[in-house]
TrEMBL record:
GO CC annotations, alphabetized: mitochondrion
Domain of life (superkingdom): Eukaryota
Cofactor section: Mn(2+); Mg(2+)
Record protein name field: Nudix hydrolase domain-containing protein
PANTHER family linked to this entry: ACYL-COENZYME A DIPHOSPHATASE NUDT19, TESTOSTERONE-REGULATED PROTEIN RP2
Species per Swiss-Prot/TrEMBL record: Aspergillus versicolor CBS 583.65
Length: 333
């Protein structure tokens, strides 16, 4: 009897996510509803799949499908708005950030979710010269779902820094208000339970603490990026002067451009290297995924992630140096 042919892995869907950093260097996470088709009940960065309004992404067989580009950046800004209500758009002619009242933003989100309009159409109604603020997005790794998972994604992650408190007069959150008006600071909100139950800024270290205590669910990409960000943004206190907050941001940006390849270009498809005695998977991060096998794309060679997969979610995550877990091991990429 002929042997069964191995089914090829599903083509990863293009998607984007934003590690959004607040004026006090906290990170926005969204709590997905338990009925969500992806990452149900987990805490995730704002983001989602690309749509045609974001631009035309290369086809699955093209390796450029896995590169940072305007369509990924447009999707990141669009999904951030649709999921959290935070609008990052600017007037193309003046360069000023767009200021839209919360009531109008909420109305727009409802109409988008009801498919009465699209984000692009809604944005044009606010200002015919309005465009998503894609220039301030900083690439911060790409993650490709392992080939053994039925639903796969190629997700471009970005950093975006909201303005520091003392920069409010030239805020990226809104234009300078007219005389007598108070400047509005955008507060993240849920999408009414469509996909998001709650949207909240907290220090990266606090999100990690909650995950460690089993209070929230994080998946490896969110855990790794929060762990890296926390090393820089959570030094000292939240009430530090703006100069110190900016210094932490500068250190994070410098880190993002460090390593080989830099974190701005790393492409990571987690791969189980072995299991611990208590059943946790030890995931290597050095492989870029089967679609990029044979290219120059690389992942993270120095770190591994421990994780227990249970009932469709990930628990008990921790990160370690690869040399301590796989002594003498060389990557086979």
């Amino acid at each position: 009897m002929p042997s069964k042919q191995k089914k090829p892995p599903a083509a990863p869907r293009p998607s984007s996510s934003v590690v959004l950093i607040s004026p006090t260097n906290e990170i926005l996470l969204l709590h997905r509803v338990k009925t969500s088709t992806s990452f149900a009940s987990a805490h995730v960065f704002p983001g989602g799949n690309l749509s045609l309004q974001d631009g035309r992404c290369p086809p699955p067989e093209d390796v450029k499908r896995h590169e940072d580009a305007s369509w990924y950046r447009n999707a990141a800004i669009r999904e951030l708005f649709e999921e959290s209500g935070i609008l990052l758009a600017k007037d193309q002619s003046s360069g000023k950030m767009l200021a839209v009242r919360e009531e109008e933003r909420d109305k727009g989100r409802r109409e988008i979710h009801q498919k009465k309009t699209t984000f692009s159409e809604w944005l044009q109604k606010q200002n015919t010269a309005a465009v998503p603020d894609i220039d301030n997005l900083i690439p911060f790794t790409r993650w490709v779902t392992p080939p053994n998972v039925p639903k796969r994604y190629t997700t471009q992650m970005y950093l975006y820094f909201l303005p520091l408190p003392l920069e409010s007069d030239k805020s990226l959150l809104s234009e300078i208000p007219a005389e007598g008006e108070r400047e509005e600071i955008q507060t993240p909100t849920s999408d009414g339970g469509v996909e998001i139950a709650e949207a909240q800024f907290l220090p990266a270290s606090e999100w990690l603490r909650q995950a460690g205590q089993g209070e929230i669910i994080l998946y490896p990409p969110q855990f790794v990026l929060l762990s890296l960000v926390s090393q820089f943004l959570d030094k000292g206190t939240r009430t530090a002067p703006a100069e110190e907050l900016q210094q932490r941001r500068t250190q994070l940006i410098e880190f993002a451009h460090s390593s080989s390849p830099p974190w701005t270009e790393k492409c990571i498809s987690p791969k189980v290297g072995k299991f611990t005695d208590d059943g946790r998977a030890i995931m290597k991060l050095d492989h870029p995924g089967p679609e990029l096998q044979g290219t120059e794309r690389r992942g993270e060679f120095d770190r591994v992630v421990f994780v227990r997969f249970k009932d469709g979610s990930s628990r008990e995550l921790s990160m370690a140096w690869k040399k301590d877990v796989f002594p003498g091991n060389k990557s086979n990429i």
